[in-house]
What does this fold into?
Amino acid sequence: MMKKMMMKMMKICKTSLPLALSALLIGSGALAAYADAPGEADPGAEDTALVEKLLSSMTLDDKISQMIMPAVRSWDEENLTDLSACPELEKALRAHQYGGIILFRQNITDAGQVTALIEELQVNNLKNEKTNAHIPYFMAADEEGGIVVRLSDGTRMTGNMAIGATGEAAAANAAKTGRVLGEEMAAAGFNIDFAPVIDVNNNAANPVIGTRSFSDDPDTVATLGEALMSGLSECGVIGTYKHFPGHGDTAVDSHIGTPSVEKTYDQIKETELVPFAAAIEDGAEMIMTAHITYPLIDDEVVFGDGETKGFYPATMSKKIITDILRGDLGYDGVVVTDALEMDAIRTAGLVPGEEDSTEYRANVAQKVIDAGIDILLLPCDMNCADAVSFYDDYIQTLAAKVEDGTISEARIDESVTRILKLKEKYGILDPDQYAADEDEIEHAKEVIGSAAHHETEMEIAKQAITLLKNENAALPLSTDGKKIVFLGRQKEDAYTIRYALSQMKDQGVIEENVTFDYYFDPSAEEDKLHYTDELRKAISEADVVVGLTKTYNLGALEESSEQYRGIAQAIEDTHAAGGRFVLLSNNLPYDAARFQDADAILLAYMGSGLDMDPTERALAGGNMGPYNANVVAAVHLMFGDGTPNGILPVQIPEISISEDGSLAYADKILYERGFGLNTF
It folds into this structure.
C-alpha cells in the first residue's frame, strides 16, 4: 500500500521521476529481473538500460501486441463494466501483451465502478502466463471536455471553443481545464487522455471538430493547447495532441468518410502545422494522427483493387508521418493512430483484402507501421469470441510479416522502445500499484465531479458567454410583469433551462411567469417539427421568446431542416405579436449568421448535456455530473446576473443561399474574431 501511494504521489507531483521510479522498479516483483544492471551516473542512461532489458525479454508476439490498443466497449451486446463478470474476455486479454485499453461511455457508470474496472484490467493483465514481460497498460479515454466526455460522474468543463472565448484569461482557463480533467482521470486510474484537440477550425462547415477547437487562429490554438496540456501533465496524465496534421479545414467527418484537404505543404505550415510545431517544441510526448488525405502534399498510390489510384490518409502516409512529423518537425515521441475502426480506413478499400477481414486490417497495419506510427488504436472492438479470434489472427499475421521481412523488426523495436520509455517516465511500469484498493475507489468518488471542479467549470463558463447582438433592449430579461417563453430544441432541454431558472427563483431574481416548450421531436415518424397550436399561442402572448439552437453543420440551417423552420417561425410569430426574440446558440456559433432577425444573440458554445438534471443527481446522493454549465451561465446572464465578457474565438462568415436553396459560407465576414459586446 505504501509503495502504491508513493507511485500515485509521483504521478501527481512529477518530481525526479526517473530516479524515484528506478528505485521502485528495482524492488518490484515482476520487473525486478530487468532492473539489475549496474547503476549509471546519468539517470537517463539507467532508464534506457532498463527499457532495453525489458525489450530484450519480449517475444515478437509481445512486441506487436504492445503496439495495439483495443477497446472493450461490450461483450455479447452487454456493456462491459465489470471484467470479473466476463471470464471469456479476461482470458482473451491475457492471451497477448496489449499495450493498452481505451474505454468509452459504455464502460463507465460511475466513479467507483470505473476505478474498480481499471484496477481489474491492470491486475488481469499482470496474470498473463504467456509472457515474461508483464507490462502494465496504457489506460486511455477521450476526455476532451465539452461535447466529448467519457466520465459519467465527471465534470464536463466548457469545451475548447468556450475557453478560446474567454480572451485574455483563456490560457489560464485552459490550464485550469487540464488540471480538472487530469485530476479526475488520474483518480480513476487513467494515464492517457486523448486530448487536447489542436486542430485549427478554419472551416466553418467542419462537421466533426467545431467547438472541440479553441479557435480558427493557429497561434491561439497553439497557446491554449499547450496550456491545457500543462494542466494534464501536472496530474501525471499523458496528454495527446490531435489530429495531425490538422482536421480543422475539412467538410467531411472521418468517422463516416475520408476528408481531403486541398492545401500545399507551404499552406499547412502557415496554419494546420503551427500548433503541432509549437507543441513539439514544448516537449510533446504523444500525437494522434488524422484519417485525412493531402493530395497536394502526398504521393499517389494504387489502392487494394489494383486499379484505383488515390492517396492514403495521413495515418498511413510515410511522407506525412516520417518525412514531415518526424523529419521536418523533429518529433521523436509516441504517435498513435485515430481509431482504425473508422470508415475513412475500414471501408475505404485502401489495401488488398475484403472489408473487415484480417488480411485487409493487417495490410492497413503494415502501412501504418511503415509510415512511422507506434500505436494501432482500436483495429476493432473486442466484443465477442469472433473479435478475440480476429486479434489472435491479426497479431499472428503481423508477426509473419515481420518474420518474412515485409515489416522490419527494427522498426517494431523502435516503436516498442518509445512506448516503454513513456510508460517508464510516468511510473506505469511498476506492477505493485495495481492491487485493488477501497481507499482509491473512495478517493475517486471524492475527486471526480467534485464541487470544487464544478465551481471552476462555472467560473470559466461565465467568462465565455458571448453577446453578439442586443437590439430593442431585448436583454437583460425581467419577469417583472413580463411573460417569457423558453423554446428548447428538444423536450429534454428543459432539464438545464429549469435548473438555471430554479437557481434564480431561489435567489429572488425572477418570478414564476416563465414557460418552456420545444420545436423538434426526433421520435416523430414523419415531420419532426414540433410547432403546436399551444406553442404558437404561448409565443403570441409572450413579451420575450428565447430560442435555443444546436448546430453541427450547415444542414441544420437549411430551409428544410426542423431547426431552421422552428426558429424562423418563432422569430416571425414573436415579432408579429410585438415581442422580442433572443437566440441562444448552444453549439457552433456560425448559426448566428442565419438568424440575424433575432433581437439579441448569445453564444454558449456547448450542445451537449442539456438533458441532464444536476439537481436530481445531487439529491439522489451522487454528484452533479457532466451537465451543461455553459447554458446555465448564459441563462443567468440573460437575466442580468453578471455582465457579458466573452469574445469570438472564430470569424463568423455570412451565409449565402444559391438558387437551388443550398447554403454556403461566404467570403464576407459578418462578425470578426475578437468581437463581443461587453454591456447590455
The radius of gyration is 26 Å. The chain is about 40% helix and 15% strand.
